[in-house]
Amino acid sequence: MKKLLLASATLALTAGGAFADEVKLGISLGFTGPLESMSPAMAQGAELAMKEVSDSGKFMGGATVVGVRGDSTCIDSAAASATVEKLISDGVKGIVGGMCSGETTASLQNVAMPKGVVMISPSATSPALSTLEDNGLFFRTSPSDARQSEVMTDIIMEHGIKSVALTYTNNDYGKGLADSFAAAFEAKGGKVTINAAHDDGKPDYSAEVASLASAGGEALVIAGYVDQGGSGILRGALDTGAFSTFVFPDGMVGGKLEADFGAEVNGSFGQMPSSEGEGKDKFLAAATAAGFDGTGVYSGEAYDAAALILLAMAAANSTDPAAYKGKVMDVANAPGEKILPGELGKALELIAAGQDIDYQGATSVELIGAGESAGTFREIEVKNDKIETVKYR
């Protein structure tokens, strides 16, 4: 059974003394870079959880939670590490982030681990993060791309497609997903005609598209970024007629896909980590009331990341990462009373009473292994120029 500490708010102490009136949480996301269109809703998701906890008046003797944003750029590891360094120097007690796998790994190893600060990423999905030594400081509310690869393989096979060309953005996220997918697809009898990297930020992708077209395949899998090279590859493939069917993993699923391509990719399909049910519905309603689109990729995961940090602090009765890091798995998993979006105040009451909680949140949170989401996925298809949900897996 989980053991939750019960203490009077007036006597509660952290390693540094009495609880402050303000508790800062960092938000390290790519506000510039290849996924900049996704970052605002993700940040708003995290800030929604912070506001909910603050408004309850039941966190650390009535402390207010303040979000501090920092730009990880998503692709520049040095910049991401500097951002996390700055957030920590500004006094944050935990970090929602990073966003992309490479910069998350760098900022975790270079900064957060040496300084002993917890990071919970809503969107870093590289399989390599599953086995990375992290001193118990790193968690993620998104599933590993090893799982996404299996889901993508099943979806492609169910479309009757047995051969694909594969291109990936040349970084940890892209290579990890591409390699995992190629292994999963070929294990089920599929053929990957080419597995080729592409660099982001190029003005022209004709050479890459020519290589993909030469290799052939019934569809083109683009494990890239919709705000960057992934769109460049897609535009080149459409303009040359190299492929007519495309498979879009999570980095390509966003409003920009609809806005820039629309009818040109009708019939193409893909998947992204997501969930359904009461928790998701409650989150979407709360997001709408707060004035942002909660359907954005990883927005719900960001809400859950912030909520888990704050609930773990409450369970440890401390904002010290060394104290609360061991409580993250406790509040995230059974046993305990299920907690959904809008119920963080209730969760704080239960914790204060010494009772167990099982945080479900916006994305049906269940942390496995060293602290990553077991994950469910939303299968999508572009129909009538729009991204539509087919089902959840």
What do you see in this structure?
The protein has 393 residues and is an alpha/beta fold. It folds into two domains: 229 residues, 3-Layer(aba) Sandwich (Rossmann fold), CATH 3.40.50.2300; 146 residues, Response regulator (Rossmann fold), CATH 3.40.50.2300. The protein has 13 helices and 18 strands. It has a seven-stranded mixed β-sheet, sandwiched between helices. Helix 7 links the parallel strand 10 and strand 11. The relative contact order is 0.16. The N terminus is likely disordered.
What descriptive keywords fit this protein?
393 residues; Rossmann fold; 2 domains; seven-stranded mixed beta sheet; 13 helices
User: What integer value in Å does the Rg equal?
Assistant: 21 Å
Assign a percent range to the helix content: 25-40%
CATH class category name of the largest domain: Alpha Beta
CATH superfamily of the largest domain: Response regulator
Number of helices: 13
Query: Any idea of the CATH topology of the largest domain?
Result: Rossmann fold
State the low-pLDDT regions, or none: 1-18
Mean pLDDT: 94
CATH architecture of the largest domain: 3-Layer(aba) Sandwich
Strand segment count: 18
How many structural domains can be distinguished in the coordinates? 2
Q: Order of strands side by side in the largest beta sheet?
A: 9-8-10-11-12-17-18
- Based on helices, strands and strand pairing, what is the structural class? alpha/beta
What fraction of the residues are assigned to beta strands by DSSP? 15-25%
What global shape is seen?
globular
Largest sheet: 7 strands, mixed
First-residue to last-residue Cα separation = 30 Å
